[in-house]
Amino acid sequence: MLNFLPLPAVIVDLETTGGRAAWDRITEIGLIEIDADGAVREWSSLVNPGVGIPATIQTLTGITNEMVASAPRFEELAAALHARLAGRLFIAHNARFDYGFLRNEFGRCGLRFSTRPLDTVRLSRMLYPDAPGHSLDAIIERHGLVIGQRHRALGDARAVAAFLGCAEAECGGERLAAVLAELRKRPSLPPYLEDNFDALPETPGVYFFYGEADALLYVGKSKNLQARVPVHFAGSDTSTRALRLAQQVRRVEWEETAGELSALLREARLVKERQPLFNRRLRRESRLCSLRLAEDGEGLLRPEVVFAAGMKGVPPRLFGLFASPAAIKQKLREIAAEHRLCLYATGLEKRSRRPCSARQLQRCAGHCAGIESTAEHNARFSEALQALALRVWPWQGPVGVVEECAENGHREIQVVDNWCWLGSAHGEDELQAILAAPPQAVFDRDTYSLLVSVLFGRQPLPVLPLRYPEPGMRGEAPGLPEKRE
Asked: Which of 79, 290, 382, 462 has the most CB within a 10 Å radius?
């Protein structure tokens, strides 16, 4: 039984107070140990998490605050548990969840824990690619497993063991050994990242490469941190930049997020604030500006430059986001040539008694020669710029853009007002704190583009309209203003 496994091995399952390894705590541990000679032992223990267990978790697992009140704390179990796990193949369903929690808990106790987990979710996907689902419930139903105490640590560990037995019987040990070898292939990594890499989760987030003296080398984002990080070093033999990064990196850190938007917003802000050595894009643009049309004394619409540094959002009749006034001028030249606009009216030439140079070449419709009226030129100029028109904020106030990640349990609300990102809230208290004292709004091209895509794309994220508390209302729930038509 389970002859395909490299032994010794241990099947692990945890129950916790939530889905975030950095904040939540373990409430129960279940192990099935398989020795090198095939001998099997079971061990489990409740754990006092030192914090309250949310009611929803108590309902799901059946583990109550009263049950763990007299249980040992993790630090009391740490040394013996560390010895039980040492030198064994670590097996779990959604292994990086369990591994991440144990790594964090051991770290709090001053113990280093590093291993290469075998994830039975990934194993199920490779063995049964046509199956409709690969959750533990789906596997139990698919194979007709009879399991007691579902959502308890030892019960779920037994379910994993039963699945491995069924897979061996159905697919054969040789096939399983080959799939296992494929799953456990380690990508080529710099030596300093070998231990660190195994803790990377297969979830969205932001990652950081650090060099000597904690110098920040690179900030990136991904929908799958575990898959993304090795890509940076795949071309280190041929890419000078990748080779330099591989030579200088000493460690990687990361923050899990609830989704790609959360990761993108953090990446954009962190790159601008901290200017990592190897980030080429998303640099802060000090001269970012837009184009606005304003009537002069004769009713002619003329272009004006509006710098983003003075903007708190997007006012009406604003066009394009440009790196500099020179970039605006170049774009105006392209538009004027395409739409036969007057170079005087578009501000590209200083007015004189003669028609503009484009009119002399028959490339202007003739406003400067009195052939085209001001109203006609205004209409054509406005129409020519419509493709560059920026969206005006469609709500009366701030909104929360909601993201949730089933894999890590994160739920975040990105608080945004007039295209400016004000912060991220994981719960009501954090949301209220942002609304009660919002940071200074900073308009940013990358944030604007991301939010337009998310809010008006093919699959828009849920949006919660919010309201800043009025004087004397601090701590009260925000109202829900109506969306503008």
From this structure: 290
